[in-house]
Structures are given as structure tokens and as C-alpha cells.
Amino acid sequence: MVADKPDKPSILIIDDDEQIRGLLKELLGVRFACVDVGSAEDALSVLGAMSFNLVISDIQMGGLSGLDLVPRVLERAPETVPCASVHSITLRNRSIFAM
Known about the structure:
It contains four helices and four strands; from the N terminus they run E-H-E-H-E-H-E-H. The protein has a four-stranded parallel sheet with strand order 2-1-3-4, with helices on both faces. By secondary structure, the protein is an alpha/beta fold. The radius of gyration is 14 Å and the shape is globular. The chain has a single domain, classed as 3-Layer(aba) Sandwich (Rossmann fold). It is 40% helix and 21% strand.
């Protein structure tokens, strides 16, 4: 896990899809110290022990949603910027983007 004050800015990645978490961690890990978890509940536990500059969360997850997580992040870690914006892209969505 990332030290409380890493040399690089730190990001907490939350997604119930392991492949999405891994991809984000791989892409962002070049410039940022990343920690990934599979649920909002796990994220709240990690936020109790560590600090992050940014939280990136999936919106739709089992249990607590990414949108419901935002106010809780702000309560526990007001210095952290929460972002609940990651969402799966389906083939239908891809065809709309292509238009």
C-alpha cells in the first residue's frame, strides 16, 4: 500500500470490475501512487488508514454506489477530491460515441 505521504500524488481506485481496476492502475500508476479496491465499503476502510489526493470510483457497484460514496469521502477525508465517474462502456454506447 501507499505510504501516507508518497513521493507521487496518490489515487484510490474503486471498481467492482477487477479488469477496470487493473487497467486504471496500470495507466495511472506511471505517474501516481495507486491503491485499488473492489467496493465502496473497502474504500471507506482504506480511507480510514491512508490519505489520497484523488478518489476515482465506479458509479454502479453492489452495495454502496459511487455516488453515495462521495459525501462519505468528503466526511472522512475533506482534503481528497472525490470523483464518481467511471462507468462500463457497452457495445451500444460505443456505437453512439462513433456517430
